[in-house]
Amino acid sequence: MTLTAAHGKVKLASGREIDALTFNGQAPGPQIRVKKGELLEVTLLNTDVKEGVTLHWHGVDVPNAEDGVPGVTQEAVMPGHKHVYRFVPDRTGTFWYHTHRASSRTVERGLFGSLIVEDGQRGMERTVFTHLWPGADDPVAAFDTADQPVRQAVEAGEPVLLRLINSSEEPQRLHVGGTPYTVTAIDGNPVQGATPLPRGTDLLLAAGGRFDVAFTMPPGVVSLSVDVNEIPNTAALAFSPDGTAPVAPAVSGPLFDPLTYGTPTPVPAATYDRAFDVTLDDGFGFALGSFTYVSSSINGRLYPAVPMLMVTEGDRVKMRIVNRSLIDHPMHLHGHRVRVLSRNGVPATGSAWWTDTLNIAPGEIYEIAFTADNPGVWMDHCHNFRHGSQGMIMHLGYTGVGTPYTEDGIPE
Ligand code: C2O
Ligand code: CU
After folding, report:
1. Tens digits of per-residue pLDDT, 95-136?
2. d(CA 350, CA 194)
3. Which residues are bridge partners to 255 per DSSP?
4. Is 145 helix (H, G, I), strand (E, B) or coil?
5. What pLDDT score was predicted for residue 409?
6. Ligand 1 centroid to 108 CA: how many Å?
7. Which residues surround ligand 2, an ion (CB under 5 A)?
8. Which CATH superfamily is domain 124-256 in?
9. Which of 22, 99, 202, 400 has its CA 20 to 30 A from that of 105?
10. What average pLDDT does the segment 247-256 reach?
């Protein structure tokens, strides 16, 4: 297929118009659906996005050359130019794509879409982005383009799968009201032995992360709503058998915790070939040539001064990530999925918690592990793109692998 990036207008449910950047005239861009093991070929064209555009396949462990990072795996596609991506997805699940150039402005304005590697789901299925669109003062929260309640008919008794994707820069607290539900997958990784959560359980979805949520449509209304900065927002979806029921008021409940959810899958006793310590911090430092307050350093440094983490193909790698700052940092390693071993010293006891975007809240300490099985030069960065543009970026390198591209700025 072809994705063409261009300026365009997007109308939200309230009638508000966004001065957007679109793929094929829409934002979010068109959904790409593919079967596991099938070759996907996408031609990216850029009509008039002056920042340049790339496509990063978030969560899909593509070969490095297809990863869409300007200055590392390709040059950004400038207006009038194109680039062809080819890869074979090898895991089913909910993924997404987005541009990786000047992302803090261009993703917010609409250069993103979903990539579904089909998993044989039956019944009603809907992909929902929780997004913050640029607004005059504050960003405008929406489910896709629904910045105010939108109703949808779903027959009672029908199995429902909501693929929730957070395309904003902040973790989003989501309320699913009116039914118990099951989290069947996290970041495209199925949860083993997932069981219904107590009614009223809330979800905290990391920026860049995905939860697949399943339930059987009840006779009443099921509402999806969101808090923004801990304040209930007007964005909401209401599902009901005849499609006319209004959104039920959200009640805040306990938070879903992947650390203890599902059938225990013991961590294989492993020895690690490498161990990395990563401290996320804030304070004063040099950012882009000037001495200033930065919210986003790694081991006291800012990109490009953060040393590359070096591995050799086949290494078992352990990483400890500490957030000493006062804000959330959703850390995303390209090209690999990581398994959570522990949080704040408490070992993970549920189904293996595989993730590609892990929100590290202030004060938290995570231990994660992964296998170095995808040679290349890979970004490992905060998915709050504003923090990324301030320098919260490092790379994972493999011995003997380089890049022919030169970074002409921040590769995000
Ligand atoms: Cu979804 Cu490097 O990003
Ligand atoms: Cu951050």
Report:
1. 999 999 999 999 999 999 999 999 887 899 999 999 999 998
2. 9
3. 202
4. coil
5. 52
6. 13
7. 329, 382, 384, 387
8. Cupredoxins -  blue copper proteins (2.60.40.420)
9. 202
10. 89
Query: Pick from 347, 393, 382: which is nearest to 368 by CA?
Result: 347
Instruction: Name the residue ranges covered by the structural domains of the chain.
Output: 2-118, 124-256, 274-398
Class of CATH domain 274-398: mainly beta
Say whether 241 sits in a helix, a strand or coil: coil
**Same CATH fold assignment for domains 2-118 and 274-398:** yes
CA of 178 from ligand 2 middle (Å) equals: 33
Query: Residue 388: what are its φ and ψ, rounded to 5°?
Result: -60, -45
Binding site membership of 258 for ligand 1 (Cβ less than 6 Å): no
Indicate whether residue 56 lines ligand 1 (CB < 6 A): yes
What's the CATH fold of domain 2-118?
Answer: Immunoglobulin-like (2.60.40)
Q: Cα(411)–Cα(394) distance, rounded to whole angstroms?
A: 10
> What is the atom index within ligand 1 of the atom nearest the CA of 357?
1
Residue with tokens 């966004």: 18
| Ligand 1 near 58 CB (within 6 A) | yes
Q: What are the tens digits of pLDDT across the range 316-375? A: 999 999 999 999 999 999 999 999 999 999 999 999 999 999 999 999 999 999 999 999
SS3 category, 198: coil
